[in-house]
Amino acid sequence: QVQLVESGGGLVQAGGSLRLSCAASGTISNANTMGWFRKDPGKQRDLVATLTYSGSTKYADFVKGRFTISRGNAKNTVYLQMNGLKPEDSAAYLCYLRSPWGREYWGKGTLVTVSS
Fold first, then answer.
1. In Å, what is the CA distance from 78 to each residue of 1, 8, 13, 52, 81?
2. What one-character DSSP code corresponds to residue 43?
């Protein structure tokens, strides 16, 4: 089983920055994809960014140029540096991991609130 634990959310003013962290534990292959989704109440999860074990990144259009995803030295950690935050970025941010065999896992989320 895999557990994902996020941290780093909080309240920030528009234009500010936050750095989210996610640590994965359990039976984890190094050849995984990790990333972030976000979810507003009553809405579906939206992909924010993903990062493969080989270093390929994918970003949602609404965060390009503002958010940066990276891995820690330990391959079971992933970060999301969020700059230029907007009120519409307010959501629960969920850590994501996909194993080489296609199994997907999500964390419980960390709440980001951006005030205008």
1. 18, 12, 24, 11, 10
2. S
Dihedral angle computed from the Cα positions of residues 40, 44, 46 and 50, in that order, rounded to the nearest 10 degrees = 110
Mean pLDDT of the chain: 94
Judged by DSSP in three states, 15 sits in coil
3-state secondary structure of 87: helix
3-state class of 95 per DSSP? Answer: strand
Tell me: the pLDDT tens digits for 11-21? 999 999 999 99
Q: What is the pLDDT of residues 25-39, one digit of tens each?
A: 998 888 899 999 999
Q: 82 pairs with which residues across the strands?
A: 18, 67
Residues 38-48 have pLDDT tens digits of: 998 888 999 99
Q: Return the residue matching tokens 């270093």.
A: 55
Distance CA(14)–CA(102), nearest Å, equals 36
